[in-house]
Amino acid sequence: MPYLNNIAVLDVETTGVNPERCAILSIGIVSYGEKLDEFYREYYPFDGAEVVEESMRVNGLDIDNIERGRVNDPENVVDDVRSFLKSNRCNVTAGQNPSFDRNFVNAYAERYVSDFRLPIWMLDMHSACMAYMLEKGIDIPRKPDGGLFLSADKIFEFAGLGAEPKPHNALNGARYEFEALCRIIYGKSVLPQFRDRPVPEELVK
């Protein structure tokens, strides 16, 4: 059975939050059409990329230790993403904040003059989980000031996965997001890494 058919969860780790000035350091992608397929690669930053300390603490990567071989060239980012999506027949990407990942990949397409762009339609894990909670009358976590606060870790905990290990890894993040979406949508565990973590009763269908 396909899960999130024609949809791939995409997660990128970057040197900062500005897609025009900051670089992609790693990409993780998970898809499950006819079979489970995953992709992970690290890339060295382009010359002059802005590096923000907080972002580097989040991803835990050391730029100096990223290989500088041909496959790690930042010019390959767009083709790597395009090839994975094409081979898995995916035309929609998903994640907790998929516009962030899309904007970085598309900025690389502009930088390296590619005709490929990730489309505007995406599956947002945050919205999917919030819609489920609203439908079922489940209280949505809030900030101290009363505002809604449904972070990725809150969603993972709601789905029975626990908080994602830190520092953040792009493939691990994509796996957590894919599994959480499947639990919310299908009410079952899909990825082998999470079979020992029961699906909460309120999600089982």
Describe the structure.
The chain has six helices and five strands; from the N terminus they run βββααβαβααα. With 205 residues, the protein is an alpha/beta fold. β4, α3 and β5 form a beta-alpha-beta unit. The protein is globular, with a radius of gyration of 17 Å.
List the helices and strands and how they pair.
Elements: E1 7-14, E2 24-32, E3 36-42, H1 53-59, H2 77-87, E4 92-95, H3 98-111, E5 122-124, H4 125-136, H5 152-158, H6 170-186
Parallel strand pairs: 1-4, 4-5
Antiparallel strand pairs: 1-2, 2-3
Helix pairs in contact: 4-6
Write a brief caption for the model:
The protein has 205 residues and is an alpha/beta fold. Helices cover 33% and strands 15% of the residues.
Give the tags:
single chain; 205 residues; alpha/beta; Nucleotidyltransferase, domain 5; 5-stranded mixed beta sheet; 5 strands
Order of helices and strands: EEEHHEHEHHH
Unreliable segments (pLDDT under 50, ≥5 consecutive)? none
Helix content: 25-40%
How large is the share of residues in beta strands? 15-25%
What composes the largest sheet?
5 strands, mixed
Q: What is the name of the CATH topology?
A: Nucleotidyltransferase, domain 5
Say which CATH homologous superfamily is assigned. Ribonuclease H-like superfamily/Ribonuclease H
Helix- and strand-based class? alpha/beta
Oligomeric form? single chain
